[in-house]
Automatic annotation (TrEMBL):
A UniProt-annotated Pfam family: ADH_zinc_N
Domain Enoyl reductase (ER): 10-322
Organism superkingdom: Bacteria
Name listed for the protein in its UniProt record: Zinc-binding alcohol dehydrogenase family protein
InterPro entries: ADH-like_C, ADH-like_N, ER, GroES-like_sf, NAD(P)-bd_dom_sf, Zn-ADH-like_protein
Transmembrane domains' residue ranges: none
Length: 324
């Protein structure tokens, strides 16, 4: 079978298409033949060896992660054989392959008729979107600021904020097209984060301050976001797309602000039953049409380097899918 690997840090050109044996699922695992694979921006940072790589150490040669939608072809020892033949979705550590192995306990059954883009959001990106809103303790009628609102996670977060009862959703993104995209997915106000005065624009839109800020950019965006929080406002950090994790001076918290972080892996380890309930809740939203994934592009497995170029260009609106 074919798979994608990189043997050194570098640009998209280091991604190599290789031949490999078909993996054999171990106990508690399944083998899936993908129909679509959702690409993750964080892999572009890992591939370049940026600081975030220290949070996700892997030996060379390294695989690419992704969210796989496909059919179960085999199961490992002690794993329910009834899963064979089921259409399912799973987050995979080694996703850019003709056949992938996934952990059976976190499989998401895909309802009939659900498109591959939305189905592929259910294992990871949608749970992250829901998780950051819950970590921010969003209450009915509150104002939420969603950074990177046109991205794979961001545009789902905008939708879920509305589902959970947000009063006003302020979206930031780069450029008019992305802001139109965010508004089309439920944002009430769009602000271009490349404008130097974007915090002033946020304060103009929410004079009393923002109740919840959701930030996956880090760096300067994170630091300046503190200033737009209302008293008792909450900032949730869950990424560092800027390339810098960022830091928060403790003195800034004395103004009745709080900062927390979110990791899906940590959430599943801390509260696995709640995490499973979240998967069922998100599947219900998808079935009812309250949660939908926009697909920016579909590319073949041989186009993995182009997938990463698109991700790094920050031009995409929604998700990029790989179709083996």
């Amino acid at each position: 079978m074919r798979r994608i690997r990189y043997h050194s840090y570098g640009g998209p050109e280091v991604l190599a298409l290789e031949e490999a044996p078909v993996p054999v699922p171990e106990a508690g695992q399944v083998l899936i033949r993908p129909e679509a694979i959702g690409a993750n921006f964080v892999d572009t940072q890992l591939r370049r060896g940026m600081a975030q790589a220290e949070l996700y150490p892997r030996p060379f040669p390294r695989p690419l992660t992704g969210d796989v939608v496909g059919t179960v072809e085999a199961v490992g020892p002690g794993t329910d054989p009834g899963l064979i033949g089921q259409r399912t979705a799973a987050a995979c550590e080694d996703a850019f392959c003709d056949l992938v192995v996934a952990d059976a306990q976190w499989l998401v059954p895909v309802p009939d008729g659900l498109d591959a883009g939305t189905a592929g959001a259910l294992p990871m990106v949608a749970p992250v979107a829901l998780g950051v809103l819950r970590a921010g303790r969003l209450a009915h009628g509150e104002t939420v600021l969603v950074h990177s609102a046109a991205g794979a996670i961001g545009h789902l977060t905008v939708q879920l904020a509305k589902v959970l009862g947000a009063g006003t959703v302020i979206a930031t993104a780069g450029g008019a097209a992305k802001l139109d995209f965010a508004r089309a997915h439920g944002a009430d106000i769009g602000i271009d984060y490349t404008d130097e005065d974007w915090p002033e624009q946020v304060r103009a839109a929410a004079p009393g301050g923002v109740d919840v800020v959701l930030d996956a950019a880090g760096g300067d965006i994170l630091r300046r976001s503190l200033d737009v929080l209302a008293p008792y406002g909450r900032l949730v950090a869950y990424g560092a797309a800027s390339g810098e994790l960022g830091s928060v001076p403790v003195a800034d918290l004395f103004a009745l602000r709080s900062v927390t972080g979110f990791s899906l892996l940590a959430a599943r380890a801390a509260a696995p039953e709640q995490a499973r309930k979240d998967l069922a809740e998100l599947t219900g939203y998808a079935i009812r049409g309250l949660l939908r994934t926009a697909v920016h592009a579909r590319l073949p497995l041989t186009g993995a380097a182009e997938v990463h170029r698109l991700l790094e260009s920050r031009a995409q609106q929604g998700r990029i899918l790989v179709v083996p």
